[in-house]
Amino acid sequence: MCSFFNPRRTSKSRQAIAAAPAPENTNVAFSSCLPARRIDVRIISASNKDLPQLIQIKEFREDLFYRCNVIGITIPSLRQRREDIVVLANYFLTKYADLLNKRTFRFSAYVLDQMLNYPWPGNVRELENAVERMVNLTDEEEIEDIAFLDTARIQMAPNTTKFDAGRPLKEMERVAIINVLRECRFNVTESAKRLGISKPTLYKKIQGHNIPMERGFK
Q1: Which pLDDT score is estimated for 213?
Q2: What is the pLDDT of residue 139?
Q3: Superfamily for 155-208?
Q4: Do the bridges between strand 106-107 and strand 44-46 make them parallel or antiparallel, or are there none, so unpaired?
Q5: Could you name the CATH architecture of 78-143?
Q6: DSSP readout, 89-154?
């Protein structure tokens, strides 16, 4: 049996029930028509909260904590075990490349460096979603673009054009790049940083979209 506690949503009455001593009789009758059967149950409980701290502020029962905490395992956040980031990222890359029939085999050194320096507040689930998103949005053998790592955290130019869903993706990308270039006074290094991509990738996109690299360009 696996039980996941959310201390702030688990009422004190439910905590009291969970903390009650287990019955000595482990024979359970599932129906009055059936004989009792012996059961053997192991409970795995998990929480993403600091339970000792919640005990101090009376949000979690101390007796329930000690009843559950027989063998405690602390799993550090992903940012605390950065050596796992590349291993997990490559695993998810293989998984989704196979699933999506993509010939995408590796990350560029730049993308790996960015992933290693990203805080990953959503832990492994966020990493998996980011890799799946990047695999979906590339047709190359090597992923060079991290613009889709977490779009909510990319610092775009404040006057970036708002797009409607009906506009072609290439047109939206071209306008976004032009806006950022203008905001950065056509400084490619700063523009690439704001867009969350490498300089070679930005140069490739500038050439592909036929964007003039002129300060007076409108």
Answers
A1: 77
A2: 81
A3: Homeodomain-like (1.10.10.60)
A4: unpaired
A5: Orthogonal Bundle (1.10)
A6: HHHHHHHHHHHTT----EE-HHHHHHHHHS--TTHHHHHHHHHHHHHHT--SSEE-B-TTS-GGGS
First to last CA, the chain: 64
Looking at the chain, which residues constitute the CATH 1.10.10.60 domain(s)? 155-208
Radius of gyration, alpha carbons of the chain: 26
Q: Are strands 37-38 and 27-28 parallel, antiparallel or unpaired?
A: antiparallel
Burial class (CB in 10 A: 0-12, 13-18, 19+), 218: exposed
SS3 (DSSP) at 174: helix
Domain boundaries for CATH 1.10.8.60 within the chain: 78-143
Judged by phi (left if over 0) then psi (alpha if -120 to 50, else beta), residue 40 lies in: beta
Whether residue 26 is predicted with pLDDT greater than 80 in this model: the reply is no
